[in-house]
Amino acid sequence: MPIFYPDILEQASAPYTFTYRERDVMLYALGIGLGADPLDERELPFVYEKALKVVPTAATMLSIGGSVSRLSPEVPEGLRLSTFDLVKLLHGEQAVVLHRPLPPSGTFTVTSRTVGAYDKGAGKGAVVVNESCWTDDEGVQVATLTSSVFARGDGGFGGPSIRPPEPHVRPDRAPDLSVDISTRPDQALLYRLNGDYNPLHADPALASRAGFPKPILHGLCTYGLTCRAVLEAIVDYDSDAILSHQVRFSSPVFPGELVTVDFWRDGSVISFEARVKERDVVVVRNGKTVLR
Questions:
Q1: Would you call 99 a catalytic residue per the annotation?
Q2: Residues 6+ apart with CB under 8 A from 197
Q3: Which of 201, 218, 245, 262 is catalytic?
Q4: How far, in Å, CA of 91 to CA of 93, rounded?
Q5: pLDDT by residue (tens digit) across 204-253?
Q6: Looking at the DSSP assignment, which residues form a beta bridge with residue 287?
Q7: If I label 57, which of 45, 73, 230, 271 is the partner at 20 to 30 A Cα–Cα?
Q8: What is the reported pTM?
Q9: Nearest residue to 259 via CA among 219, 288, 290, 291
Q10: All structural domains of the chain with their residue ranges
Q11: Position with higher pLDDT, 67 vs 290
Q12: Which of the pair, 152 or 237, is modelled with greater confidence?
């Protein structure tokens, strides 16, 4: 399963069009725990179609769970297709930039491409960065999603050994505030209905073979939890106030755990980290939200 360089930098998916609906928006919000108290009037707009609000990080799942009209790989003629050892693939970082707030439903076109590949050496893995761009029916850019993966089994392909861009660094001071976000024991079973059916998040036997005591929460669900924390603690549930949201994953969350998110606020830039105090482990580092 080799990486071919520099061919990988020309590797892209064919543009495809997808449609998401209000149901998809509400399911995502439920999947990250919003609406647990159906009488909470601050959270109800995310899970009820009356004046429906969209969680910004829903952009990571709406193009998966919505209706996709075309999705096929596209490799320019003469280039070698790079593939990965999926068993050793880890989600490293995730970022979403919303050039304008997402509507409760819509149809968009997505183009995706590889924008970086960094070789850590044989036996040490590789970092691959991908970018997806959403445009509306007039060709106007709506969202940009950037993700990196750590391909543990694919180092030594001869690419550049320079380090990828440095992650955001939080201020060197005590947090300005913290918020606790609870998860339910069945959180992963609900979240996977957004379209990520990886059995690692549902099958106890498979999770055990992967070295975990039980199924773990999706990384992108943890990503959504940190955005939920920003909504609650920083912007008073005004989802339109969030321009971008990015994280670096450092450890998995187990469904049912309490996640504490620490915040540092400097004007429109919000730095954050997330941790599970019960296990004394940081699950998200280098978090950064930018407000409009």
A1: no
A2: none
A3: 201
A4: 6
A5: 999 998 889 999 999 999 999 999 999 999 999 999 999 999 999 999 99
A6: 272
A7: 73
A8: 0.91
A9: 219
A10: 7-21+66-151, 177-291
A11: 290
A12: 237
